[in-house]
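FAQ

Q: What does a record look like?
A: Structure on top, sequence underneath. For example:
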């Protein structure tokens, strides 16, 4: 069995935080970082044990479409493998049917490579930046200074 850590890697945590920043009202019911006791006994060698895996809830109605994310993350060098809707993808091996007990219909599982745990660069760059960042940038430009007209009484 893989030893179970107390905290997930920054890269795994970043997946959920960045998805929430892009879509604050997204459904999180199937989100997951660290394994439950049941998960540990069922999948003793899961990457969730080491904090190098994350489950992201599929919520296409609110912009977190795991079909799209599954395809796009095939380009991300941090990905060790992906599982969604009965398929598993690994670099160099392509899509294969996933035969584990959970077909992953409600969430996308992302396993992260051992040397990428600290890499928190954007996971969803094609979805754009979160709205709060755009607001800060818009407020930076100062208004041009106007000369005060001389008062007629002086
Ligand atoms: Zn998982």
């Amino acid at each position: 069995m893989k030893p179970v850590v107390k905290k997930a890697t920054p890269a795994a945590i970043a997946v959920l935080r960045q998805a929430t920043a892009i879509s604050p009202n997204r459904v999180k019911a199937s989100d997951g970082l660290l394994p439950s006791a049941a998960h540990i006994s069922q999948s003793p060698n899961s990457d969730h044990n080491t904090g190098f895996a994350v489950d992201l809830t599929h919520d296409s109605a609110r912009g977190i479409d795991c079909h799209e994310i599954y395809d796009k993350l095939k380009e991300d060098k941090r990905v060790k493998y992906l599982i969604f809707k009965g398929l598993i993808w690994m670099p160099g091996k392509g899509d294969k049917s996933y035969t584990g007990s959970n077909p992953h219909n409600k969430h996308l599982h992302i396993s992260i490579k051992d040397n990428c745990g600290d890499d928190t660069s954007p996971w969803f760059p094609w979805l754009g930046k979160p709205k709060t960042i755009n607001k800060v940038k818009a407020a930076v430009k100062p208004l041009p200074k106007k000369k005060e007209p001389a008062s007629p009484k002086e």
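Q: Is there anything notable about this one?
A: The pocket of zinc ion is lined by residues 32, 48, 53, 55, 109 (CB under 6 Å).
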